[in-house]
From TrEMBL, chains A, B:
Residues 3-59 form the HTH lysR-type domain. GO terms for molecular function: DNA binding; DNA-binding transcription factor activity. Belongs to the LysR transcriptional regulatory family. The lineage of its organism: Bacteria, Pseudomonadati, Pseudomonadota, Betaproteobacteria, Burkholderiales. This is LysR family transcriptional regulator ArgP. The keyword Transcription regulation applies.
């Protein structure tokens, strides 16, 4: 049995664009043509592949097909490159990559520019916690990810990228108000801290490192790298921020460190599908180069970290 | 029939913390106590309220209860304030607010600092497109939102905040490469642009404004306010960026405008539940003040915008 390439392209486009209408525009066909192709594909495979909604999403059965469509595109691009032709079947599909928010706001983007120098391909970034990025790799929604997971996801290769360095910072006014007698256990138990989201354990790790206790101070959730820094600047709470972003603010005295000189490092890894494709190789090399320029070098990490 | 306050607190904590274990830690009880309270509440109401998963989420039946728990907390805080006491039943619940990414990265955070000056409450931000934020208001997951929706969500009041101003920018190298003969229709149809996500229509609006055509250039998706700026700086594509963030980069010549002087404004609105509660009033006043400081003044908007 062979899959129909136009049906597969319609399937991939609906998932990428989120609706049958938008997929039709992207493929330059009518919405009813898209609808017919999806229906034919679903009848052929005997399964519902797309959960109709806003946006449309892959069903569980659809996920394996999504992965196949992504792989097909990468392989076709490779096969057609010597002819100077673009990939056909799933040409609407861009290079989908998951990356954690702090990496995207700091060292990651130059890698994409390097890929674009050599490959004429659109790039589709997913901002995800590293926990979730393994799931996206498995589902076939992304073909590579910046992850905190050192063990390869099934069907993937993994390489260490380096360590993202964090410092605990707050505004001078916040320090005067919440730590008038210095940064002791009692004050740390009361002073509000900022966390990125439910999964962000960095502040808790810092508290354990400093106090050897499991403190539960009040928490604000600020799921935005720069909102997170603003929240420290405006005295909402203290928080762990990427060293590169807060260095100029520390130098100017707009922020101060809770424990000067104390850092937490989060090791990051590059998870990519095991496919021999030039575009994936270029991407992996470019990401490694950007990581060398923007992260602390990797080492044997005692502190496997969970992080945004 | 009256709801048991400890059961309701357990319900709210599981949804906020994402798991029974984390809720137990937050409430200083055992996980089995949390589990028993949730079960008792579900048996009492005859419905499954929480979809067990990672993270746990409200079922459809649970959503209306979530809204009730949020409202209860706000009202209790109001009733107890004269006694100098904190709210009880749902004290684990923070003030949940939805805000679009670009607002959070620019003008919004000072409003939170002003609220914290007067109310001892934790803040829980949800970064959402304005489309989605109406849904979060209805579900009871947030009690206020920065939204592009001018019509009040059911049970909410709405007030105009102002207009967020965007400019189309790219790197000088990108301009030389993709617009060697100037910014004409043909070049605009080919030059890659950055979009924030599936829903981001700003680049398409700019293209229609400039060319009066529906062009479909290649698109990169970069769902991060600062990643979006990096993507322009590193020549990945052109994109519509908040004026405040790109002004210094334009002044330095690191970025240039595609159509100098041409701006797009996105009107933003403040949607909040219709509850007479001091903390909501303080928040609304603080958000209005921050918007006055950080946005263009509102006017009768011909351009209802969809935006990140």
């Amino acid at each position: 049995m062979q899959l129909d390439s136009r049906q597969l392209a319609a399937f991939a486009a609906v998932l990428h664009e989120g609706s049958f209408e938008a997929a039709a525009r992207a493929l330059h066909v009518t919405p009813s043509a898209v609808s017919q192709r999806i229906k034919a594909l679903e009848e052929r495979l005997g399964r519902v592949l797309i959960r109709r909604g806003s946006p449309c999403a892959a069903t569980e059965a659809g996920e394996s097909l999504q992965r196949h469509a992504q792989q097909l595109q990468v392989l076709e691009a490779q096969a057609l490159a010597p002819f100077g032709l673009e990939a056909g079947a799933a040409a609407a599909l861009p290079l989908s990559i998951a990356v954690n928010a702090d990496s995207l706001a700091t060292w990651f983007v130059p890698a994409l520019a390097a890929v674009r120098e050599r490959h004429d391909i659109a790039i589709d970034l997913h901002v995800e916690d590293q926990d979730h990025s393994s799931e996206l790799l498995r589902q076939g929604r992304v073909l590579a990810a910046v992850s905190a997971e050192p063990a390869p996801v099934q069907g993937c290769r993994v390489a260490p990228l380096g360590r993202m360095r964090y410092r605990a910072v707050a505004s001078p006014a916040f320090m005067r108000r919440h730590f008038p007698r210095g940064v002791d256990d009692e004050a740390l138990a009361q002073a509000p801290c900022n966390v990125f989201n439910q999964k962000d354990q960095l502040q808790a790790r810092f508290l354990r490192l400093l106090t050897r206790r499991r403190l539960q101070p009040p928490q604000h959730r600020i799921p935005s790298t720069h909102g997170f820094i603003h929240a420290a600047l405006h005295g909402l709470g203290w928080g762990m921020n990427p060293e590169d972003l807060v260095a100029p603010l520390l130098a100017r005295g707009d922020l101060v460190e809770l424990a000067p000189g104390c850092t937490l490092d989060v090791p990051l890894y590059w998870q990519r599908w095991s496919l021999e494709a030039p575009v994936l190789r270029t991407l992996s090399e470019a990401v490694a180069a950007a990581a060398r320029a923007g992260l602390q070098p990797p080492d044997t990490p005692p502190n496997a970290g969970e992080r945004r």
